[in-house]
Structures are given as C-alpha cells and as structure tokens.
Amino acid sequence: MAKKKKASEGGASQVWMLTFSDMMTLLLTFFVLLFSMSSTDSDDLNEALTSLQDSLSVIELGTLSLSTSSPPPKCTPVMTVKPGQLMAAVNEMKQFISQEDLDSDVDIKSTERGIVLSIGEQVLFDSGSTDVKASSYPLLHEIARSAARLAKTVRVEGNSDSTPFAGDGRGSNLELSGRRAINVLQVILEEKVLTPHGASVAALGDSHPIYPDEQTDDERRANRRVDVFIVDPPDVESFWYALMSSYLDNAEEKQEDGLSPE
C-alpha cells in the first residue's frame, strides 16, 4: 500500500507539464502570428494607396515608407490639399472680401499652419463687446463654406491690445479675447456646412501682437483682431463622417422648412 501511494504521488507531480506544454504552444503560435503580421508586402500596400489616391481627386495621400533602411519622414501629413486648390481657395476668399469692401480690415494669406484670415475688431465687434455683428455673418459663413470645400476645419484665435479691459468692469483682455473667439466660432458653425469636429478656439489676449510696442491708435487697432485658421482636422475619417452627418441634418432641416438642399 505504501509503494502504491508513493507511485501515485510521483505521477501527480508531473501533471503541471501538461499545462506548461499548452502554454508554450500558445506562445509559439502567438509569436508566429506577430511575425507574419510584421512582414506585410510593401508592393501590395503601396498599390492600394495609389488606387485610393486616384479615386480621391480632391485630396492627396501622404507617402508611407515600410523600409527600415531609412528613417520615416518627419510630420508627413496623412491627407493634404493640392497647392493649386489651396491657392484657388485663397483667391476666392480674396474676391469675396473685395466684394464686401473689407480689403482694409481683413488680411488673408497662406501659412504653414494653413489659410489664416486676420479680421479686425471693427468688422466683428463694437468696442469692448463680445457680441458678433450681424453684418459680419456673410464673411464668417463664407469661411465655413471654404473650409468645407477643402475638407478642413477651423481654429479661431482671439487677440487684444495691451490697453486694460474697460468693458463691463469684469474680466480681462484674455477673457475678452476668449469670449470673442467662442462667439465667432459659433457663428461659423451656424452655417451647418462645417462639422464642429476638431474645431477649436484660443484666447491669446495681448500675448501675440502684430505691433508689440503699440505706439499709435492704428497699431493698437491692428492688434485687436480675430485670426481664423482653416486647418487640417485631427482625425480625417471621423471628420468626414461628422461632415456627412452635418450635411444630412442640414438637408433634413431644409426639407422640413420646405426648401431643397443645395
């Protein structure tokens, strides 16, 4: 009886090897799968990217390198607008600004951050106020349409001069610039052709002046502005989904009002 018990105990002590062998098999399978996934055919992937680029004529895909011999490019954009389309958008905005007789109050240019429109305070607000003038709505709605045509979004940055804020006795220039930026963005989004996904605001106060010394009233007036940037959305796929949802919602509202969507 004692010998049988000892043999039984010896056999039971080997059971752990079954679990160990199963674990090793699973680990081997896991690493084989990882290796197979890491060895993607670069020719097939580049062919797929080229096919997608040809089908999307409005946008241009950035390059993707799978070679380990050279480091990846710095900050390669996922999707970028062609230079010709960007200039065309700038020219269209310039024409609109001229038609509205705003050449002396609105400056537009193309920068590394995207298209930027510097809009003077007098176009958007009364002195010390944060309420957007109704007369500036056509300009802000045109900015929304331009951004939508380029599949981009907007960033609104409020700026002020260094003169102490003397509006309602509360707050500061920083808060004033922030409220103005938010209100401008709200008017831009009212056009409902531009998704709010990725849209943003910034309150800069007097920290980014055009004229740091502000020697004259004209220089102080130039510092009191709102900069609207037409920029790439942070996530293109989500942007397109949100943009389509925005368009469909707008179309439904127009049908309810008895209007046909454009």
Overview of the molecule:
Helix 6 (137-149) crosses helix 7 (173-190). This protein has helices at 2-12, 16-38, 42-55, 83-99, 121-124, 137-149, 173-190, 217-223, 236-256, and strands at 59-61, 79-81, 106-111, 114-120, 153-159, 200-205, 225-231. The longest helix is centred in the first third of the chain and has 23 residues, at 16-38. The protein is of the alpha+beta class and 262 residues long. Helix content is 49%, strand content 15%. Strand 3 and strand 4 form a beta hairpin. It has a domain at 99-256: 60s Ribosomal Protein L30, Chain: A (2-Layer Sandwich), CATH 3.30.1330. The chain starts with a helix and ends in a 6-residue tail after the last helix.
Descriptive key words:
262 residues; five-stranded mixed sheet; single chain; 60s Ribosomal Protein L30, Chain: A; elongated; two-stranded antiparallel ribbon; 15% strand; alpha+beta
